[in-house]
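We give the chain.
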Amino acid sequence: MEDYFEYKNNSKRYIDIKSKLILGSPDRKNRLFTIAIPTFKRTELLEQALRSALNQIDVDDYEIVIVDNDNSGSSSEKIVEKYSNKRVYYFKNDENIGMFGNWNRCIELAKGQYITILNDDDWLSENYLKCCKQFLKADLDGLYFPSYRVDFRQNYIDNRKYQIIKKIITPFSKTRKKLTLFDFFMGNMSAGSLGVLLNTEYLKKLGGYNPDYFPSSDYVLHSNYCHHYNVCFINIKLNYYRIAENESAKQETLTKWEYLDNDIRKYFISVIARNEKLLRYVNKLIQENRVEGLVNTWNYYSVKKRKYNLMRRVLKKILTIKYILNR
């Protein structure tokens, strides 16, 4: 079985590829927060993400680091110039180092004690950092916040059916909850990196995002982080996750998700090392629900796709809840 938590220094893969500071003062200071925006040829979306980062209220101790994977274009540079601000630092990679490679480069370049990675197609609420500062206590190493799902294919906010089911199967009745590996066994706790605030140095200690686990690299690293460090889920929606036709919607990517996430959860069972028989059964239910979610959200075609009536699904989720509440 693959050891998904084995340490690998994933930043070393691109050690010879440099990131040049194009805009911003080279005299950078350490900050409490870094909002990092990795970007690649999505200028019209980058502007909204950058604007949301600049519009944070009641917090001054933060920087914005933009790392562009496209060293040939100038359109993103013009956007950054348009919003010229002393807290913004715009870098260009000499070569395209891939999505998760660029996330790792954001971690390397960050001067903030804590980093949140904001993809260029998502955006933050204006009080995101304010809430981070409010909930970030001395005994915490990170925070998770849920996000609104904004479907630009259908032009509405939130899939209501998805939200109802999620409320049934997610054991977050309180505003705060400490995250454990079991929570990640139940499913990825975030929409990629959106709404996730983690300690920059601790991310480096864990080796960063492993591109070999694409498209689930964030799932692996974040679960590993919460397994080793003290992270709290705050049940307040503060950010906006864009659903559109992109890399995530490709059938090849969705197939990798279907099988890789299942394999990752099996690994989690071996690490949790208790109630393994029951967890294997629960994993089958999760996998069925996972595939159904891919079908409903991304029009995914799976040879294992099955039809379940609502009562049968709810009954299975209730069995899962019973385990959660009595574990």
